[in-house]
Amino acid sequence: MFSVRVESVFSSAHNLRGYKGKCEALHGHNWKVEAIVSSEKLDPAGMVIDFTVVKKELNAVLNNFDHAYLNKVKPFTTLNPTSENIARFVYGRLKKKIPGLSSVTVWESATSCATYHE
């Protein structure tokens, strides 16, 4: 099995609804998002997928979040903008465009992340 990983970043603010603690207050992160694509076979050029294809599709999803207040961006107007929910949302959008997508991981800090995969 082969896997490739593409990373991208965005900056945004959010606050967590229904949470008691510091994160219920408005705060921001410099988020890192990684998408992993896997395949048992390589294409004729010897690749799982062209990195630029994954990067383009990932950035298309993340551009809606960059320098935004996530609680005012759909679907997070009703869905709590946790790392877990962001990872699941990004995965769902990318899965439609990227064959072989295996997981999306969202890092809210250098030491804390959440991963979604099916």
Describe this entry's structure for a reader.
By secondary structure, this protein is α+β, with helices and mostly antiparallel strands. It has one domain: 6-pyruvoyl tetrahydropterin synthase/QueD (Tetrahydropterin Synthase, Chain A, 2-Layer Sandwich), CATH 3.30.479.10. Helices cover about 20% and strands about 35% of the residues. The protein has two helices and five strands. It has helices at about 50-60, 85-95; strands spanning about 1-15, 25-40, 70, 100-110, 110-115. Strands 3-1-2-4-5 form a five-stranded mixed beta sheet. It is elongated, with a radius of gyration of 15 Å. It starts with a strand and ends with a strand. The relative contact order is 0.22. The model has no long low-confidence stretch (mean pLDDT about 95).
CATH architecture: 2-Layer Sandwich
Q: Which word captures the global form?
A: elongated
Q: Counting H and I runs of at least 4 residues, what is the number of helices?
A: 2
Estimate the strand proportion. Answer: 35-45%
Question: Any idea what the radius of gyration is?
Answer: 15 Å
Give the strand order, joined by hyphens, for the main sheet. Answer: 3-1-2-4-5
**CATH topology category name:** Tetrahydropterin Synthase, Chain A
Mean pLDDT: 97
Number of strands: 5
Integer count of domains: 1
**Superfamily (CATH H level) name:** 6-pyruvoyl tetrahydropterin synthase/QueD
Order of helices and strands: EEHEHEE
Structural class: alpha+beta
Low-pLDDT stretches:
none
Biggest sheet record: 5 strands, mixed
Report the helical percentage. Answer: 10-25%
CATH class: Alpha Beta
For the termini, the CA-CA separation is 17 Å
